Amino acid sequence: MSKKLIRGGIVVTAADTYRADILIDGEKVVAIGAGALFSKETEGAEEINASGCYVFPGGIDPHTHLDMPFGGTTTADDFETGTRAAAFGGTTSIIDFCLTSKGQSIREALDTWHAKAHGKAVIDYGFHLMIAEANDAVLHQLEDVVEEGVTSLKVFMAYKNVFQADDETLFKTLIRAKELGALIQVHAENGDVIDFLIKEALENEQTDPIYHALTRPPMAEGEATGRAIALTALAGSQLYVVHVSCAEAVQRIAEAREKGLNVYGETCPQYLTLDISELARPGFEGAKYVWSPPLREAWHQEVLWSALKNGILQTIGSDQCSFNFKGQKELGRNDFTKIPNGGPLIEDRFSVVYSEGVHKGRISLNQFVDITSTKAAKLFGMFPQKGTIAVGSDADIVLFNPNVTRTISAKTHHMNVDYNPFEGKEVHGEVVSVLARGEFVIRDKKFVGTKGNGRFIKRHKFGASPTLKEEQPHVL
Ligand code: DUC
Ligand code: ZN
Ligand code: ZN
Ligand code: ZN
């Protein structure tokens, strides 16, 4: 196995910032310190100059949709293009959502998702499993799912007549998750209310992209978030709210955590940096900014930043769900409900959060690592294999130069999609090189990885990691 010595960089973890060299042997970090201290072990190691760079643990994106059929079409990025773009952006692990439908066997759904990723992914990946119905067969099969390392389950409270599950399904899944040690994720928006508002808008011929946002008000997200929390408390279970976009939802999560409930939240770069005015762009350009939940009024952004800073929200996911403007977003030209929801963010998640967060002084460098990597590893049962730089951890490492700026553009990005929601945005700092399990995937900004090198991550049960309890003031 090959040895590598990363020399002269500043190592940054969720806890510490210090100057040290890192010795990698094969897939693992084997020593950290002044290289001279372990000169015997470094014999024959390839030296990698990291001077001027931060040396971060590889990013973990806990929320992606690759090769996913949705809205009458399929996402533009699959596991090959999506994970390659992720690596360019400093991400070395993703957790993707495995869809299921009513009546479908869970085994079949998981096999489908394994087949999409296997042989294609360039970085490691895990799966969350969507729960469409909670009948006895499904609830029984979950035992094997969790044993297989798929230890998080997703319930949609929105997308009526498509993905939406009712409260009974959510409640039964929460109870089963507690028994099995799984973390329940919710897409928290009140789908029934939104469905009513959409019908009303269409009756009034309100078909432009802006009506996507106006028919999904913040209170519909706050209500569903509060309801999911109440059901979690009743079940004595654990909950992770994906893509929190607004103050109303933050408020519910803050109250729940204050009470000592096991409730966690994620937000996304788009909610931290873009606002509802994007949907009113001239022509049909607003379609590029259609996410669910929708972009909010700008003042919500500072609420989200302070929730990250204060530990009310723990993670940043990209909600990568890319659709081309041409031929895909355009499906909704005459009807906003036909615009496929989602956008391409897997590549820029890390650098947008660094630039807007650390560079602008909203969060610390260590908090940056925590929210883009470490907390996801802990909550989703991958720590300390992933999410930190420590002896024995996977050598998933990013060399990041904070002293340069770069301009985001679809012309230079690596996602398989014809626009970038951050087109023209200047960001501070750039990813220079990325190692995944000890091998370069990106070297000096060039892709040197191998399709199919990414492995399925068999994750631990929720709360099984011995360090998780320290992270949680709230007893499991
Ligand atoms: N929201 C999106 O914008 N895209 C994917 C699914 C979702 O819930
Ligand atoms: Zn069984
Ligand atoms: Zn969602
Ligand atoms: Zn999503």
From TrEMBL:
Superkingdom of source: Bacteria
Keywords: Hydrolase, Metal-binding
Keyword Ubl conjugation: no
Known cofactor(s): Zn(2+)
Enzyme Commission number(s): 3.5.2.2
Domain Amidohydrolase-related as annotated: residue spans: 54-441
Pfam families, A to Z: Amidohydro_1
InterPro entries linked: Amidohydro-rel, Hydantoinase/dihydroPyrase, Metal-dep_hydrolase_composite, Metal_Hydrolase, Metallo-dep_Hydrolases_sf
GO MF entry, a single one: dihydropyrimidinase activity
SUPFAM superfamilies noted in UniProt: Composite domain of metallo-dependent hydrolases (SSF51338), Metallo-dependent hydrolases (SSF51556)
Family named by the database record: Belongs to the metallo-dependent hydrolases superfamily. Hydantoinase/dihydropyrimidinase family.
UniProt protein name: Dihydropyrimidinase
Source species: Tumebacillus amylolyticus
Gene responsible for this protein: hydA
